[in-house]
Design brief:
five-stranded antiparallel beta sheet; Herpes Virus-1; binds zinc ion; 22% strand; 2 helices; mainly beta
Length: 152
């Protein structure tokens, strides 16, 4: 697994540099002066606040989730791949926004769905997590008693 640690702002956009990008991943990359491939496909907008305190798509249909992920490009809050509906990765597939940050209290990691790699990223606009008193799984009142049978 490749890790990408270095972030920089290029023409006002946050991009991450990878020391090596495989054939498929290089399609949207440019090569910088020092020969490092710079991916331009990981849009992060640190100024955009999160869409809310729960999964936007679950809230729309009365669903529930296990953990929450925040899209680093547009602020969409979606549920993780353990959740019944997996709305965060669905958001990536429908919008092409590949980078999320965990929206769980105390967690700062980023994940790139396109490259399937963990990332380091810049501080995003607050709040950077759901409320501490929100239930897991949550939200309260919408989680069925047999929830363990529904997670992935
Ligand atoms: Zn959801
Ligand atoms: Zn998004």
């Amino acid at each position: 697994m490749r890790r990408s640690q270095a972030w920089r702002s290029t023409a006002g956009r946050w991009v991450h540099r990878t020391a090596r990008v495989d054939e498929g991943g290089a399609r949207c990359a440019t090569r910088s002066a020092d020969g490092t491939l710079v991916r331009m496909t990981a849009p992060i907008d640190p100024a955009v606040p999160p869409s809310g305190t729960g999964c936007t798509d679950c809230d729309a249909v009365g669903g529930w989730w296990v953990h929450l992920r925040r899209c680093a490009a547009c602020g969409h809050v979606g549920c993780c791949d353990s959740s019944p509906a997996q709305h965060a990765s669905a958001h990536f597939r429908t919008t092409g926004h590949p980078v999320v940050q965990s929206f769980e209290p105390g967690e700062e990691w980023f994940w790139d769905y396109a490259e399937q790699v963990p990332l380091a990223g810049p501080p995003l606009a607050p709040p950077t997590s759901r409320p501490d008193d929100q239930a897991v799984p949550g939200p309260r009142g919408r989680v069925p008693a047999d929830w363990r049978a529904h997670i992935h």
